[in-house]
Amino acid sequence: MDNKKRKLIKTAxxxxxxxxxNSISGTNMTSxxxxxxxxxxxxxxxxxxxxxxxxxxxxxxxxxIDDMMSKFQSMISDPILAPISQxxxxxxxxxxxxxxxxxxxxxxxxxxxxxxxxxxxxxxQARKNAGKVC
Length: 134
Prior knowledge:
Elements (H helix, E strand, L loop, with lengths): L2 H21 L7 H15 L7 H6 L3 H9 L1 H6 L7 H11 L8 E4 L5 E4 L6 H11 L1
């Protein structure tokens, strides 16, 4: 990665930290949650094609994931959080045993990838269940 892109990413991360804190205020979030969400949002905007998404997502606390799922409609309406909402949903499903096995992210290129998972129930049903569990 060149210096110009590195500076752009660092600036984006610093700006995103505060924006994310404001977007998800009222949730049970730790500094590690904010850091992980910032990394996911930065990756969404400036992918390098080598990020380890599972490692980033697994650092999110259970309380934070549950809080985000209880506010799923507002999350998918938020321009900052919407691009990463699918990762939150699938990780929530994994943690609540709604997946047949663990999910996988595969980079197809430097700018895009595919989220692979096998769900035991529909994702619509999982979103409905999130309100009951959280």
